[in-house]
Write a structure and sequence with these properties.
6 strands; TIM Barrel
């Protein structure tokens, strides 16, 4: 699910929810070709049935509107990965394609990563760009727990 980075937080959340709703409707309408796959087991079942597996993700942390409750709600609705940023900083994380503002993550950004780890949500660190700058490295080491975070090209 992609929404523009410059939307105000509440509009970004609404736009993301509308895309999730549309995704579920599309899968239901074309259930002979598509299958929703929020888990690895579901992914295998969908592939085994000859259908295309649909995995939902949020392209940019702005989609949660600075709310851990919204992050949890997206997970409940089937979102299984989120990039922390897209091409611009969020209010809590630096993008590798924007001017640094937080030296990586704010305290809230750390909480976002911890909550994603707790739920088992995959993440991708700091935009679609490369991770070769120093401010990105700390995002992988939040409290020594970086299991679901992957580098560019893996999500």
């Amino acid at each position: 699910m992609w929404v523009p980075c410059d939307l105000p937080p509440e509009q970004a959340v609404t736009a993301t929810l509308e895309q999730i709703d549309a995704g579920h409707a599309l899968i239901a309408r074309h259930s002979t070709e598509l299958g929703f796959a929020p888990t690895a087991d579901e992914l295998e079942k969908v592939f085994a049935s000859g259908r295309i597996a649909s995995v939902f993700g949020a392209e940019g942390g702005h989609s949660i509107g600075n709310s851990l409750a919204t992050l949890r709600t997206l997970y409940t609705l089937g979102v299984r990965y989120m990039t922390l940023t897209h091409e611009k900083n969020t209010d809590w994380a630096d993008a590798s394609t924007d001017e640094p503002a937080y030296d990586g993550l704010t305290a809230f950004g750390v909480e976002v990563v911890r909550e994603m780890n707790r739920m088992g949500m995959f993440g991708r660190s700091l935009a679609r760009g490369s991770l070769h700058n120093g401010r990105c490295a700390g995002c992988h080491r939040v409290a020594g727990d970086f299991q679901p975070f992957v580098g560019p090209g893996f999500v």
